[in-house]
Amino acid sequence: MTLRDADFDVVRDRAVAKLQALVRIPTVSHRDPTLVDTDAFDAFVVELAAQFPLLHERLDLTRIHTHGLLFHWRGRADDRPVVLMAHLDVVPVEGEWRHPPFDGVIEDGVLWGRGTLDDKGCLAGICEAVERLLEQDLTPAQDIWLSFGCDEEVFGQAAPQAVAELVRRGVRPWFVLDEGGAIAYDAFPGVNPPIGVIGVTEKGVTSLELTVEGRGGHASTPAKMGPTARIARAIMRLEKSPFPGRRPHRPSS
Ligand SMILES: [Zn+2]
Description:
Layout: H1 5-23, H2 38-51, H3 53-58, E1 60-64, E2 68-73, E3 77-87, E4 106-107, E5 110-111, H4 116-135, E6 142-149, H5 158-168, E7 175-177, E8 183-184, E9 195-196, H6 227-240
Parallel strand pairs: 3-6, 3-7
Antiparallel strand pairs: 1-2, 2-6, 4-5, 8-9
Zinc ion binds at residues 87, 118-119, 152, 179.
């Protein structure tokens, strides 16, 4: 499908307005579940249905964990299923903002707000693509699953539970696309144009708790390699020995 210039403006403005509506809902994740504003997440799920009515009418929805969403768009064949992923939560607001983080202000053609890039832009993009194809009565060649997590920013339960649900249904994805890099400027020496970064792997995270014990003493007679210095040394040793990087590999079966 090609779009004439006039159509492009209409299509873009419609998609931007939908993203704007989603950015305005403060779906902030916290590690402590009691700090999560579940009303905001409820409102987000309702707003998503309002913005993408055909998607919600024609795809099967399974709720995952608290507010995770797993949509199934049946294709003409059920082999080679595709999974498109995004997440609807955002990290808490910190620092000074040029525009309020949940107002969805557009200035000079740029939409400002927490989550526009990470990751409501992907979410709205996926949903709008599906919505437009449904408007044209398209049936995909293969099954498509949309898996939207609600606690990605705190390493939560929605994604593993979505995987468990797919396993339970015997779905073995042929292709999975999750959020990736952004459009990066001045990212590599010698490359001037902006680069669309495609992430093929992701750095993992390890949390460690270090404890050091030592004998007491007095500041007038400081001990060599006291507990503070030893823990600093331990941190530096960790810093110097990261896990080796590796490329993703194709599973053998
Ligand atoms: Zn993200």
